[in-house]
Write a structure and sequence with these properties.
Length: 213
């Protein structure tokens, strides 16, 4: 009779120990989640410390990269912790970093031409963004906004990572947009047929680093 009671009791003890370990694991995972709030105020973008890098690809897997310069920008944080921001981009500054010399300059000139971004007529682009999240969890901020290129505006959403808040706010983000929506038609499959490996993909990726104080 004694043995019949010892075995179930052992099982109960082991079960309780196992539950205790699961709870400890859940608690440890929960404790790793952190949240912060930005201080209320208006933060100005530091142009020479901020960066914008673009990446374009052809169907043949050929990739071109380059940079653009900021003209100005600001990030506003209101008393409720909501974030609103805007940056102005100098499209005339577009350059190519994967090619040097004659061919690099030729591609830069083509990107500035009406075939692509028509920078003489449309010298500026804009990104507006906002977030109503009062607490920033695990340094991630979900942002909603608008991208304007060639005076054409479309909504855009992306996630930014907050790298630092003092002495400056530093955030990085990756954006992707469909160039065909902004009347950038050159070798686009949405406007031309039978391009073969000359087709240039419509999606352009942009890596942004903003430094503001």
């Amino acid at each position: 009779m004694i043995r019949k009671f010892i075995i179930p009791a052992s099982i109960i003890i082991l079960t309780l120990i196992g539950c205790g370990k699961k709870n400890e694991n859940k608690d440890s995972k929960a404790s790793t989640t952190s949240s912060i709030s930005l201080e209320q105020g208006s933060y100005k973008i530091i142009n020479n410390e901020s960066e914008l890098k673009w990446i374009g690809k052809e169907l043949s897997t050929k990739t071109h990269t380059g940079t653009l310069a900021f003209i100005n920008g600001e990030i506003d944080v209101n008393s409720n912790g909501a974030i609103h921001g805007k940056v102005q981009i100098d499209m005339t500054s577009i350059d190519v970093s994967d090619m040097q010399g004659k061919w690099g300059k030729k591609l830069e000139g083509h990107l500035k031409s009406p075939d692509f971004f028509g920078v003489e007529k449309y010298p500026n682009a804009f990104i507006k963004f906002h977030s109503e999240e009062k607490q920033i969890k695990d340094s991630q901020i979900n942002l909603f906004g608008e991208l304007t290129i060639k005076d054409i505006t479309h909504p855009i959403t992306f996630t930014a990572e907050l790298l630092d808040i003092k002495p400056s706010i530093i955030v990085k983000a990756n954006l992707s947009f469909d160039r065909s929506k902004y009347d950038v038609r050159f070798r686009s499959g949405k406007f031309f047929e039978n391009l073969g490996d000359k087709l240039i993909l419509d999606d352009i990726n942009v890596d942004v680093l903003l430094v503001a104080n």
